[in-house]
Amino acid sequence: MVTVAQLRGKYEGPIREVLMAGFEKGLLTAAFDNLQIAGPLRFNNFSYALRELLRHVLHRLAPDSEVKRCVWFRPTQTVADGITRAHRATYAIQGGLSDAFVKRKLGIDVAFVRSDLMKAIKVLNKHTHIEPSTFAIKPKQVEALAGQCLKATEYFIEHILKCRRRVAESLSNAIDQHLINQVISEAIDSIDVLATHHQIDEIYVDHIEVVDISSRAVLVRASGSIGCDPIWI
């Protein structure tokens, strides 16, 4: 049987790596500290802290204002602000891009990914409620259930970021190079300063990277070179 100390050694480091310094990392530390304090509510407090940690991570990755600006957003009437965890998970993965675009153009089935993420949340929800089955449970049962919660937490945070990176990489590959060439050629003010009479011969784009996907825009970083010749008058 895995002990609490072993669980902490296995999961705390990997989860901390994807958390923000300060509150998020402090909450994770407090959750583990709670798990090691004897008492009838030790497991309930631990699982509740993990659920709240995921809630804060989701709010950081998917702010209210950004989620509501997405073209795919439809408020859920049964939720106070209309935003569900599924909405936030969607934004955290793909920003304002639609499911149809992500699936058809990028080949990623976000609906399937989102379903898996919500299952991880359900594991924590199941254990946060104080019921006879989770109150004053034996140490061995605490360790087994804590392992389930930690596995779900690690999966949720790492998977959501991994999917975000996959969407960004697929989008980078899908961006039409001719579009990048056109954008670059229309925005070369610095060349006009250096040479008032010139013509651009060729534009080479060596690398395209999607840096951020927000509700209304995709921020792209491109590197390359421009070939131009002077025009003699």
Description:
There is one protein chain. With 233 residues, the protein is an alpha+beta fold. The protein folds into two domains: 4-62 and 111-173; 177-230, no CATH class. 61% of the residues lie in helices and 12% in strands. The chain has helices spanning 4-17, 23-35, 42-61, 64-69, 85-94, 99-106, 110-128, 139-174, 177-186, 189-194; strands at 198-213, 218-230. A two-stranded antiparallel ribbon has the order 1-2. Strand 1 and strand 2 form a beta hairpin. The longest helix has 36 residues, at 139-174.
Summarize the structure.
The chain has 233 residues and is α+β, with helices and mostly antiparallel strands. It contains ten helices and two strands; from the N terminus they run ααααααααααββ.
Give the radius of gyration: 24 Å
The tally of beta strands, per DSSP, is 2
**Oligomeric grouping of the chains:** single chain
Which strands sit side by side, in order, in the main sheet? Answer: 1-2
Q: Which outline best applies?
A: elongated
Specify the structural class: alpha+beta
Report the average pLDDT across residues.
85
- Amino- and carboxy-terminal Cα gap: 84 Å
- Beta percentage is 5-15%
Instruction: Spell the H/E element sequence.
Output: HHHHHHHHHHEE
Largest sheet: 2 strands, antiparallel
User: What proportion of the residues is helical, as a percent range?
Assistant: 55-70%
Unreliable runs: none
Number of helical segments?
Answer: 10
Task: Give the total of domains.
Answer: 2
